[in-house]
UniProtKB/TrEMBL annotation:
The keyword Oxidoreductase does not apply. This is Zinc finger DksA/TraR C4-type domain-containing protein. Transmembrane segments: none annotated. It comes from Rhodonellum psychrophilum GCM71 = DSM 17998. It comes from the Bacteria. Residues 81-111 form the Zinc finger DksA/TraR C4-type domain. It holds the Pfam family zf-dskA_traR. The lineage of its organism: Bacteria, Pseudomonadati, Bacteroidota, Cytophagia, Cytophagales. A zinc finger (dksA C4-type) spans 84-108.
Amino acid sequence: MTEKEEEKVRMVMMEKIHELKKEVEDLKELTKPLGLDSAIGRISRMDYINNKSINESQLRKCEAKLKALHNWSAKLGTTEFGKCSRCGNEININRLLFMPESTLCIHCASRP
């Protein structure tokens, strides 16, 4: 991977980290418990609980992706960056630009 390509991936990665941090903040707000003294009806409370479960699931996914991005960004500038963790081949630049948290090349990612 050239320095120019690595810089491009770095920028995409930093932008993605910023977006995910914002999304995590928003989801944490949405998953706060509903107070028992809240004056809403039974159906609305059930809807809130259902939406809270969905938001909690999304929050876990975002936090996992954020952790993966931080771990991968720590390897920027090393010989490991941009290499498939399974086969050692270089990960296509377009894949890294689309999914900067990718640690597998497309070939290895498509295998079980």
